[in-house]
Specification:
Strand content of chain B: under 5%
CATH class of the largest domain in chain A: Alpha Beta
Number of domains of chain B: 1
Number of helices of chain B: 12
Number of helices of chain A: 8
Order of helices and strands of chain A: EEEHEEEHHHEHEHEEHHEEEEEEEEEE
Radius of gyration of chain A: 25 Å
Low-confidence stretches of chain A: none
Largest interface: A-B, 27 and 21 residues
Oligomer: heterodimer
CATH topology of the largest domain in chain A: Rossmann fold
Mean pLDDT of chain A: 92
Structural class of chain A: alpha+beta
Number of strands of chain A: 20
Structural class of chain B: mainly alpha
CATH architecture of the largest domain in chain A: 3-Layer(aba) Sandwich
CATH class of chain B: Mainly Alpha
Number of domains of chain A: 2
Radius of gyration of chain B: 23 Å
CATH superfamily of chain B: MetI-like
Strand order of the largest sheet of chain A: 6-7-8-3-9-10
Distance between the termini of chain B: 36 Å
CATH superfamily of the largest domain in chain A: P-loop containing nucleotide triphosphate hydrolases
Helix content of chain B: over 70%
Low-confidence stretches of chain B: none
């Protein structure tokens, strides 16, 4: 039995349809992410679980209990807000202990709990500090400690890392993941950052316009996006308009620049038949062939149009002979590999098994 | 070098205060001003019970007016901040300032019309049979002064409280609910403490001018509702005793300073570290 179960959730703001028939189940102990661009309804969905929004239709149960008549303050959920919502008039310890007021613990027990919670998020000894004297990363830890001290069944995180700088964000990503494994509480994370979702989650629900577009593990989502839009949203993907023709029992794809080749049914996202379609391929599934390297796959020739050097990687835009638009391909920078400049002729190797076929645009 | 703003401050603020303080140490002998320094006025102010009584009454009236004004202003400010659609808030604030469109004096007179023996309130209540005879405890006494002042200063209390409520991050209230508080306890634990700077500001803004008000007690206070400012005015004009009036003014000023300082310190404590 799933810990959180949503079925047929609909939410309107006036005439705006914010959530459209959302059904999903989140298991106990899972790190679950709601991923999507801003305005896709992911935060509304999170706030619905928290009890700050009332759905117009549908049923939400947590731990088997219908939440329709349970207000936010009595739900077994706690939230880390995007702004962290640290009480500015209280100390760090008072913030962390805020929710313990109604518990039966003695004063000394509460102080011990607060100390342990601060220790857990790496803020041991910060209890007496004024909340306003904290940095962004510390505020976030206080918000985490304040929510986790109540031992909720579900921890809801609303874009918790978006206000941090890159280094801090990367550090908190791994810390959050570790913390989740350590406490075993179900985490539901809202984010617009696909990389963050891929790094941290057990499963990801990608949302567009109030609907779940795809719900899968990070690997499945990356390797087998079920639509062109998901493919484009998660990571980088070359989209090449082309067509497929039936040849006896086989489908033959005609991909400008990459050539003609048989398409096995596994590569289709929606059982596409003959006609116009879009072929997708990730930049890392194509590589430039440098002297002395023996890559596998198919080979095509082309001209480098542009390159972007990232230190560890170089991204090349290559116009393939016979292609209509340049494709992007990423190369790991090795000592033995030169960095090509625009205008250089090159040979490109690619893996036909990495192709995905989407509907035509 | 003396800068223009400094000169301006000296001329308009320091010189008048210094003149008042100086006068308070002089004395009046019939028509002449005796400029020998003396504490005679202060001794007289301490000795004659009428002054102490007037000072105590002024303080009391200001405190009551302040409490009533702030307590009634808070729900209005809260309503506008939390329950009025964001696009309509400025309209509501504009409406709050409507009393300012007429002069203070006229508003005080209007209260006379409302609270009088044959006034709007009495004839209304008589008309619907709630009372048999006109109420007399509502005009020409302390109550009338309190009602009139509380009405006059309401906008001054509403605005700072509204501003402090507006500055409260609404996610703090959701966080309080999320952590198990009810709406009422979240109000007490989060909203009220965070609104404190605005409340303290409202208290100061209402308290300081009311203690020195003399129009309202003069017009609606009757003999029992007179305040220290009325006595200061009488000393200066009718009794031609400027030194005594100055001494009373200095005493009133010290009283205000003490109370205001206490509140400012309180405000600091609440404001500490707020962004």
């Amino acid at each position: 039995m799933a810990l959180i179960s949503l079925s047929g959730i609909d939410k309107y703001y006036g005439t705006y349809h914010a959530l459209r028939d959302i059904s999903l189940e989140i298991e106990g102990g899972e790190f679950f992410s709601l991923l999507g661009p801003s305005g896709c309804g992911k935060t509304t969905l999170l706030r619905t679980i928290a009890g700050f929004e009332t759905p117009d239709k549908g049923v939400l149960t947590i731990d088997g209990r219908d939440m329709a008549r349970v207000s936010a303050n009595r739900r077994p959920t706690n939230m880390v807000f995007q702004s962290y919502a640290i009480f500015p008039h209280l100390t760090v310890a008072q913030n962390v202990g805020f929710g313990l007021r109604r518990s039966d613990l003695t004063k000394a027990e509460k102080a011990r709990e607060v100390g342990a919670a601060l220790e857990m998020v790496g803020l041991g000894g910060y209890g007496a500090r004024a909340a306003h004297a904290l940095s962004g990363g510390q505020r976030q830890r206080v918000a985490l400690a304040r929510a986790l001290i109540l031992k909720p069944k579900v921890l809801l995180l609303d874009e918790p890392l978006s206000a941090l700088d890159k280094k801090m964000r990367e550090q908190m990503q791994s810390e959050l993941r570790q913390l989740q494994r350590q406490v075993g509480i179900t985490f539901v994370l809202v984010t617009h950052d696909q990389e963050e979702a891929l790094i941290m989650s057990d499963r990801i629900a990608v949302m567009f316009e109030g609907e779940i577009a795809q719900l899968a593990t990070p690997q499945d989502l990356y390797l087998r996006p079920n639509s062109r839009r998901v493919g484009e949203f998660i990571g980088m993907m070359n989209l090449i308009p082309g067509r497929m023709d039936r040849d006896g029992s086989q489908m033959i794809g005609d991909i400008p620049g990459l050539g003609r080749l048989p398409i096995v049914p596994d590569l289709l996202t929606d059982g596409q038949g003959p006609g116009d379609c879009t072929f997708g391929i990730r930049p890392e599934s194509m590589s430039l062939v440098f002297n002395g390297e023996l890559p596998t796959g198919k080979f095509v020739d082309g001209t480098v149009v542009e390159r972007a050097y990232y230190g560890d990687m170089t991204y090349y835009e290559v116009l393939l002979d016979g292609g209509t638009a340049p494709v992007t391909c990423s190369m790991k920078n090795l000592v033995s590999r030169p960095v090509l400049d625009a205008g250089a002729r090159t040979r490109l190797a690619w893996e036909p098994g990495a192709l995905i076929v989407f509907d035509a645009a | 070098m003396v800068s223009a703003p400094f000169l301006y401050a000296v001329l308009l603020l320091a010189v008048p205060v210094a003149a008042i303080v100086m006068f308070s140490f002089w004395s009046q002998s019939y028509l002449d001003l005796d400029t020998t320094l003396t504490l005679k006025n202060y001794r007289e102010a301490a000795a004659d019970p009428i002054y102490g009584q007037l000072l105590a009454r002024s303080l009391w009236i200001s405190l009551v007016v302040t409490v009533i004004t702030v307590v009634t202003a808070f729900p209005i400010a809260y309503f506008i901040s939390f329950h009025v659609a964001p696009g309509h808030k400025s309209l509501w604030i504009f409406l709050v300032t409507i009393p300012f469109w007429t002069s203070y004096l006229i508003r005080v007179f209007l209260w006379k019309v409302i609270l009088g023996y044959n006034g709007v309130l009495n004839s209304g209540l008589l008309g619907i049979g709630v009372i048999d005879a006109p109420l007399t405890f509502i005009l020409y006494n302390l109550n009338a002064v309190v009602i009139t002042l509380a009405h006059a200063f309401a906008p001054f209390a509403i605005l700072p409280i509204f501003v402090s409520l507006e500055r409260i991050d609404r996610s703090l209230l959701e966080a309080a609910l999320d952590l198990g508080e009810t709406k009422v306890s979240a109000f007490l634990r989060v909203t009220l403490p965070l609104a404190m700077p605005g409340i303290v500001a409202a208290v100061l803004i209402v308290f300081i001018p009311t203690i020195g008000d003399y129009v309202t007690p003069r017009l609606v206070g009757g003999p029992g509702g007179l305040m220290i400012a009325n006595m200061i005015q009488t000393q200066f004009l009718k009794l031609n005793n400027a030194p005594m009036g100055a001494a009373l003014a200095v005493i009133a000023m010290i009283m205000v300073t003490v109370v205001a300082t206490a509140f400012v310190l309180l405000n600091r404590r609440f404001l500490k570290g707020r962004s």
